[in-house]
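User: Structure tokens for this complex, please. No commentary.
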Amino acid sequence: MTITVAIDCMGGDHGPRVTVPAAIQLVRNHSDVRVILVGLTESIRPFLGDAAVGRIALRHATEVVAMDESPALTLRTKKDSSMRVAINLVKQGDADACVSAGNTGALMAISRFVLKMLPGIDRPAICAVLPTLTGHTHVLDLGANVDCSPGHLLQFGIMGASLVSAIEHRDRPTVGILNIGEEEIKGNDVAKRAAELLWASGLNFIGNIEGDGLYKGEADVIVCDGFVGNVALKASEGLAQLLATFLRQEFRRNLFTKLAAVVAMPVLNKFKKRVDHRQYNGATLLGLKGIVVKSHGSADVLAFTRALQRATEEARSGVLARISERIAQQQPLQETA
Amino acid sequence: MTITVAIDCMGGDHGPRVTVPAAIQLVRNHSDVRVILVGLTESIRPFLGDAAVGRIALRHATEVVAMDESPALTLRTKKDSSMRVAINLVKQGDADACVSAGNTGALMAISRFVLKMLPGIDRPAICAVLPTLTGHTHVLDLGANVDCSPGHLLQFGIMGASLVSAIEHRDRPTVGILNIGEEEIKGNDVAKRAAELLWASGLNFIGNIEGDGLYKGEADVIVCDGFVGNVALKASEGLAQLLATFLRQEFRRNLFTKLAAVVAMPVLNKFKKRVDHRQYNGATLLGLKGIVVKSHGSADVLAFTRALQRATEEARSGVLARISERIAQQQPLQETA
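Assistant:
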């Protein structure tokens, strides 16, 4: 089966300078993948160079969504933006997935408007992969929904578990809910009621996960509301930057430490590669009738290629059908919730 | 002025084995500090050894609060626990502050019951110090309150700013609110309404801080509800452990990497010392009519000594009077909120 990925080439901090080389990389690495490069063709072409690779199509789009633009305004006015045209290609069945490094809010709004939600899902959720001591975990929502009901968190659990089942061919991935262990009350009201729904859901639910559990491999899927998920993810990014800065400063302190850095460099580079957040780039907008992957805005070619690969894997695995099936099973239960 | 610190010697994972040597360390380092060691004297004495240090008093308490005990039950039944007796010493004016590494929920419940809240403060908040690129920041609440109103977040801002003013002798510390930048909505409803109150408060409020801003030194004080604060803090702990584990694994991979580790060891040790979370041990329960500092349960002697130092500094700085004054100024404004 050939997979076609529509790429919003104009999105992100770097636009075609990153998105086009990443697209070329993707089709070079995967002989069964086609890409449609969407955007201002005059901006895209220079980066195509003489890449003698087939399976690359161009689709002109006259507008570009700015990173700080209002999603609502974008939705109403920019009907021919590269982002919207890429999403339209998925809607029309011309592409199996689309990827954008653009404005998250606009991507959410347009995707939801154009593709619509899967039956039984109220809202899309942003799902990303985080490294853990034992491998990795899928966490959702990471910022699409700031106020979630228990029922939404149940839907996130179902979608996350379906995604992991589909991509990693695992029957019953474990699902946990992010909560806090402090205090008598042990967590907030929404999390407690969501846990009740999850226990009754038939998912392989394992209960509460505290913040540090995000990186311990305690569950294959961890659900949380988008506010807390976003803060946890960004706090982690901030801490990683702090530690990297301090480590660099210590190795640059004097001649001796600089020599030590030279000796330690191969080890430090392996470490760096292992924890390289670019490897984890590409968050899925789950719950839509189509596959939409959001790349980090600052992604470089390596990172954006990873997001493209994620979209390809999801398209190949039939994740949408998996979610729909699972939600249909849940329906009677959910209605009583 | 002599400062007297009451120490719950039985709390934490290690009890007197850690708390007593830390107390000895504190009085050795500070000639104007007295300590009252509270707990089972027969358990405490062996660790006092022949420490020929004055300024150490013992106060027998017959009960011990277990780490997993229900706070409500503890509050009702264990009237002679080391934790409660230590807090009573503050209430009676026999101590200027107390420190415990015990059960957080019980410490909160007993402190609140025995000491009562400062006028104008509804709930206590847990405030801790985090390292940043430029120094450090105070963050509250870290788990005492899972559902906060905008007015509570305003109170946290006032308390945090008063604490920093008192301890660091700074006139107008900057205050930010933890929020998310994703989506059109830019944050949840409570955070938005709290920001309005904070803008109008007369505090040096600087607006929203995203998760990664926690470690960037963007504000001297960052307020958030206890659920999100606790998850962010624990997620950071989890990530730090993950990175430390991966770094260790890379340096232990083979003979060459082990040699590199030997060469890099002095640098790595300096780095480790710089980011050592033990240096930041000791969270303050702010808002009470008395100084109560909570140590991490797993604290070792170095970490517990830091918590004792924090309590000493707060007692010396007159932080409670500072909070009361600031809240009194705010009162008319708050009532309209």
